[in-house]
């Protein structure tokens, strides 16, 4: 039982990364209808940007996070200019195919610039103010500061995103676009700006996830492949375009994987998520939390 | 005044300029020897380390005046760890540069493809880092064209597994391996060897290569209280596992597969790599006096420590050059015969003191691997 709680927490930590990556993906899909297969590369770039900020620029944690957010957001803007702007009036397959191309291009660029060997971000979270005062043992559960940082950041960023979507003009225009882009445009929403904001936000969230995870795990040029697949799983589970659905489904997937490797076998952990996705697509095509109302 | 046409003047000038060179080409133009390594692509880091060994061996010979009264010239081809490129590279070295032997290469799959071509041309190859048993297993016993002057990966795995029980005295062993052919083969072998020498396998877990989160699996392994944990897989995954194990407080003797024999592994795993054990054929601190002398000379020349890769490149090249000296001419077929049987007195930098290039009929040299243990961020040989 003690271990069960530990497994839950382990799952919540990896689940938090899935949430950060998947929320951006679901935003881009929900608002712009772009299926972005290069999303995992935003994660990878975030990891390398973090290493650059901390080791080459010697930035402390918070400025480093800001730097990573900025770099990832710029990459997101560039991706928008490639994947969305020239293709928004074309068939959706065009942007899908070009997002594959972008993913391969970014991976190979990373291979040339950073090399194939995995790298790690040396970030000592246990020396950070505030965080270092928190305990690392909660009854039977042990959670090092390094890992604790991930769910905390996830909650803060997703909370902020939710507030922006709910209460600001930008958020309202994003949601209006998601509901009906023509009507949104008629009401004065600047569609091209919304597209840029969406891509920048999505990429920034994935970039932060990449940075935080590269201090716990490792970053290498093709690290984005698996994380993108996981994020797609989460997006489908949560219902395409559903932000809160993605947040819940991300945590759920993390926990399911953790329990699978603890109680079934570690080699099946990656299979479970995909099996569930196939089941969901067959029986609940709108996702676990999707509403079954068709768009007008 | 005799009129000299421009053409005949140029011809005469050309002949008079070229004559000394043509004459020299017949007598003492450098002898070209071949090197084939991954200079770009996935294994380029390892390839460049091996290359230093090749260059160092040739430099030393040339400093002593060369071989057979001629200088040695090393011709390097990049195979990019790609079998097709490797086959082309071998052809080019043999047809264009007429090399009598080739040192190469690092990737075993490329070796298997390339050595077929080299054998057709009667040019022997000496491993540039390839350790898989497949490299020497494809040789016709008794007539090998691919030579590897150290034990194959099977022997390495066996020595590692034995060390867990016999050297570290740990009998409860947990195995963690990736799902690649490499990881599964190693795990099977460790299971077999450990049980044969009186150990018990308490658990066996696998993961997908490149997986990032091992915390739940390791938490489960911890409850079984293993005395030793064997990891079979790539260095990056191994480093990740060792670090996460330290984080959750899984304390045991960690032992890894040959891929974790790199300084990158130590860098990635950080302090968690302390005490980690791995099999090796050479370290600068080797008790082998030939190896120690090589390490000292290498350090003086390159201002960096020699490692397994550079020692491999050095030994393979030295064997080829020495065999050519004993034969007396750059003839591939004769050199192959000499390496096969006539080098049993030639001391190597790798392996324990007294290791010589005594190739067995499959083209491999057998000696016990060292078990290195990481201490203060460096691999050390406990002898």
Automatic annotation (TrEMBL), chain A:
Keyword Cell membrane assigned:
yes
This entry carries the following GO cellular component terms, namely: plasma membrane
PANTHER family from the UniProt entry: AMINO ACID ABC TRANSPORTER PERMEASE PROTEIN, BRANCHED-CHAIN AMINO ACID TRANSPORT SYSTEM PERMEASE PROTEIN LIVH
For this chain, the family text in UniProt reads: Belongs to the binding-protein-dependent transport system permease family. LivHM subfamily.
Membrane topology value: Multi-pass membrane protein
What residue ranges are annotated as transmembrane? Answer: 12-35, 95-114, 148-169, 194-220, 232-259, 271-289
The protein's name is: Branched-chain amino acid ABC transporter permease
GO MF: transmembrane transporter activity
A Gene Ontology biological process annotation? amino acid transport
Instruction: Extract the InterPro entries matched here.
Output: ABC_transp_permease, BCAA_transport_permease
> From which domain of life does this come?
Bacteria
**Keywords carried by this UniProt record:** Amino-acid transport, Cell membrane, Membrane, Transmembrane, Transmembrane helix, Transport
The subcellular location is: Cell membrane
From TrEMBL, chain B:
Note the InterPro entries from the entry. BCAA_transport, Leu-bd, Leu_Ile_Val-bd, Peripla_BP_I, TAT_signal
Q: Please give the name of this protein.
A: Leucine-binding protein domain-containing protein
Name the domain of life this protein comes from: Bacteria
Domain Leucine-binding protein: where? 30-376
GO annotation, biological process? amino acid transport
Print the keywords alphabetically: Amino-acid transport, Signal, Transport
Annotated Pfam families: Peripla_BP_6 (PF13458)
Keyword Transport in the entry? The reply is yes
């Amino acid at each position: 039982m003690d271990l069960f709680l530990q497994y839950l927490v382990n799952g919540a930590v990896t689940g938090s990364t899935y949430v950060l990556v998947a929320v951006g993906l679901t935003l881009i899909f929900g608002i712009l209808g772009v299926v972005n297969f290069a999303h995992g590369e935003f994660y990878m770039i975030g990891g390398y940007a973090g290493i650059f900020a901390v080791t080459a620029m010697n930035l402390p944690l918070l400025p480093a996070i800001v730097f990573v957010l900025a770099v990832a957001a710029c990459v997101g803007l560039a991706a928008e200019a490639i994947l969305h702007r020239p293709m928004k009036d074309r068939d959706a397959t065009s942007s899908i195919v070009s997002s594959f191309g972008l993913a391969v291009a970014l991976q190979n660029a990373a291979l040339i610039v950073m090399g194939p060997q995995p790298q790690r971000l040396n970030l000592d979270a246990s020396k950070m103010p505030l965080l270092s005062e928190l305990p690392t043992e909660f009854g039977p559960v042990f959670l090092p500061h390094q890992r604790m940082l991930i769910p905390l950041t996830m909650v803060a960023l997703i909370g902020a995103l939710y507030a922006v979507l709910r209460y600001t003009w930008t958020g309202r225009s994003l949601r209006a676009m998601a509901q009906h882009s023509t009507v949104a445009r008629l009401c004065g929403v600047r569609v091209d700006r919304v597209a840029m904001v969406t891509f920048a936000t999505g990429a920034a969230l994935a970039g932060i996830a990449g940075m935080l995870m590269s201090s716990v795990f490792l970053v290498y040029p093709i690290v984005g492949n698996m994380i993108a697949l996981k994020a797609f799983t989460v997006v489908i589970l949560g219902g395409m375009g559903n932000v809160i659905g993605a947040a819940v489904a991300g945590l759920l997937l993390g926990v399911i994987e953790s329990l699978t490797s603890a109680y079934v076998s570690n080699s099946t952990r990656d299979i479970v998520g995909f099996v569930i996705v196939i089941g969901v697509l067959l029986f609940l095509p709108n996702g676990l939390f999707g509403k079954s109302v068709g768009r007008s | 005044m005799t009129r000299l046409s421009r053409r005949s003047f140029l011809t005469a000038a050309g002949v008079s300029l070229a004559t000394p060179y043509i004459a020299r080409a017949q007598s003492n133009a450098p002898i070209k020897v071949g090197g084939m390594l991954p200079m770009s692509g996935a294994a380029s880091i390892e390839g460049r380390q091996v290359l230093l060994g090749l260059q160092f061996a040739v430099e030393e010979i040339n400093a002593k005046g060369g071989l057979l009264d001629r200088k040695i010239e090393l011709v390097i081809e990049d195979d990019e760890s790609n079998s097709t490129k490797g086959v082309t590279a071998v052809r080019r070295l043999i047809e264009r540069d007429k090399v009598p032997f080739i040192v190469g290469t690092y990737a075993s799959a490329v070796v298997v493809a390339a050595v077929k071509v080299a054998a057709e041309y009667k040019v022997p190859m000496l491993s540039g880092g390839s350790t898989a048993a497949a490299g020497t297993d494809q040789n016709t016993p008794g007539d090998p064209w691919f030579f590897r002057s150290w034990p194959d990966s099977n022997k390495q795995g066996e020595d590692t597994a034995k060390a867990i029980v016999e050297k570290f005295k740990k009998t409860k062993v947990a195995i963690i391996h990736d799902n690649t052919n490499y990881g599964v083969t190693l795990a099977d072998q460790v299971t077999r060897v450990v049980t044969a020498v009186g150990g018990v396998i308490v658990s066996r877990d696998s993961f997908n290569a490149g997986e990032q989160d091992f915390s739940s699996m390791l938490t489960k392994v911890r409850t079984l209280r293993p005395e030793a944990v064997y990891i079979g897989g790539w260095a990056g995954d191994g480093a990740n596992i060792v670090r996460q194990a330290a984080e959750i407080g899984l304390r045991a003797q960690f032992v890894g597969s040959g891929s974790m024999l790199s300084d990158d592994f130590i860098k990635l795993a950080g302090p968690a790599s302390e005490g980690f054990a791995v099999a090796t054929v050479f370290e600068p601190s080797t008790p082998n006096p030939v190896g120690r002398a090589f390490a000292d000379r290498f350090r003086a020349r390159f201002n960096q420590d020699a490692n397994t890769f550079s020692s491999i490149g050095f030994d393979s090249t030295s064997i080829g050059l020495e065999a050519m000296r004993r034969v007396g001419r750059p003839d591939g077929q004769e050199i192959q015969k000499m390496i096969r049987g006539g080098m049993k007195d030639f001391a190597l930098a790798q392996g324990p003191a007294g290791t010589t290039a005594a190739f067995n009929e499959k083209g491999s040299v057998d000696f016990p691997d060292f078990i290195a243990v990481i201490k203060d961020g460096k691999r050390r040989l406990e002898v």
